[in-house]
Amino acid sequence: MEKPLTVKDLTVSIDGKIILEKVNFCVKKSGLYTIIGPNGGGKTTLVKAILNLIKPESGEIKIFGLSNQKYLRIYTVGYLPQRLSAQRFFPIKVYDVVKMGLRERDMGEEELIDDALKKVGMSDFKNAFFSELSGGQQQRVLIARAIVSRPKLLILDEPTTGLDTRSQQMFYTMVKSFVDNDMTVLMVSHDIGFVMDFSDGVFCINQKMLEHDLCENSLISREFFEKLYGYKVKPIIHDHGDKDD
Ligand SMILES: Nc1ncnc2c1ncn2[C@@H]1O[C@H](COP(=O)(O)OP(=O)(O)OP(=O)(O)O)[C@@H](O)[C@H]1O
Description:
By secondary structure, this protein is α/β, with parallel strands linked by helices. The chain contains eight helices and ten strands. It has two domains: 1-75 and 152-238, P-loop containing nucleotide triphosphate hydrolases (Rossmann fold, 3-Layer(aba) Sandwich), CATH 3.40.50.300; 86-151, no CATH class.
């Protein structure tokens, strides 16, 4: 089977300033993979390059064996952009928010939307107004929008910003369930504890270079965190809390 994502020697400049320099990484099989690193380190820029929203100076990006440009012409990559509060106040119903994620050729609109809302636990809110939902509920609806056309690759840019710890945990559990359905998820996150707990692989990016690439079940050392963020970080591994459910 083709690898979900390969990034080779990717260099991106904005206004003449190098943001990413010769970044290399590979997602070899489906799973939940996270990108961590300090603010301004280039995580969103990397995501935008993968989605062909910005043109790299050089390098190669492949999604399931095709160049990202070709893949995106044929298929959809689910995408949840970084949170923007202004997006949240349109007088629009949940159903129509999710519908925005469908392509013209997707058949069975209502069934797809119902299925996506079910996967994020928001079926009961199908006819509610989006603006009347809590931040965490809105985030779930936006995930439903990102998965409604059943993409094989889903990219989430800091999806848990503003969520409390319990909601973050539920969020990670939900995203992990997508992976069980054979989807690959690439998530930008600052929740180091949850990242360590839930991810199948962690990629660390600091300014120009992708510094480290961890494989399944390996732990990131404190020394590495210090190098990445420039100060001492003590990662806390969360209890999944399943007993409370
Ligand atoms: N459109 C733009 N114009 C100019 N500079 C930009 C633009 N987009 C990003 N940058 C710069 O690129 C660098 C990386 O930004 P990016 O948003 O990719 O970082 P990030 O790792 O996602 O940060 P954060 O964790 O704060 O979201 C920053 O220095 C930023 O100022």
